[in-house]
Amino acid sequence: MNATTPSETQQLVSAEEWQLRVDLAACYRLVALYGWSDLVFTHISARVPGPEHHFLINPYGLMFDEITASSLVKVDQQCNKVIESPYPVNPAGFVIHSAVHAVREDAQCVLHTHTRAGIAVSAQKNGVLPISQQSTFVLASLAYHGYEGVAIRDDEKARLQANLGEASFLMLRNHGLLTIGKSVADAFLSMYTFENTCQIQIAAQSGGGELTQVDPRIVEGVGHAMKVQTGGLGGAFVWPSLIRKLDRIDPGYRN
After folding, report:
1. Distance linking the first and last C-alpha atoms of the chain
2. Domain CATH code at residue 67
3. % residues pLDDT > 90 (the chain)
4. DSSP strand E in the chain: where?
5. H/E element holding 130?
6. Are 242 and 28 in contact (CB under 8 A)?
7. Is there a domain that residue 123 lies in?
8. Confidence (pTM)
9. Number of domains, the chain
């Protein structure tokens, strides 16, 4: 099959998949807009609805602010292309994502970043500290995975899966941040909270003074509240305004 144009891609996929493509392309653009991208070296994946267990991932080599709905590459669980694309994919980059998707049916979207603040906190022995309101949401569902080098080996998957468990936030030691969402919107809002948590912590530590920590009972209460509610952090409420923001800047991600 030859490479497809945007209109051809839309005709090849279901309306549900096309909307997912638009949302995922928007997420890539937002990650770039908020300064969380690392050139082309991180990924955001989304599970395509259906029994085939196919996924959408970025075309390797495009900057995040270049990604569009039609340029996203559809792959299987081994990162083989399902729909032909002129763009390469990065199988090594899919290792972490495939590991998460394999054991978390609730993970429609997996978002991974290499931000300066995120890596800085991931290198700290005590990890995320309970020193901000934002941190209480993260600590309510946070797991850690130790650094094993560049994540290219399949044997690391089992250890990552075991460390992740049922958490929604995963700190990859000496590496970066990862969030899981039942939707693209949820994964993005979780990362927004995770990244802000890390930035606040680095800023607070740089002041040099003694830090006041949140009462553990409050953190525990937040964790309980997040378990009993179904809306998570409320990505669905924020997402429409983010889409309007992108459309004002450049609606080209929809192509």
Report:
1. 20
2. 3.40.225.10
3. 80
4. 44-47, 55-57, 73-75, 109-113, 142-145, 169-172, 176-181
5. none
6. no
7. yes
8. 0.93
9. 1
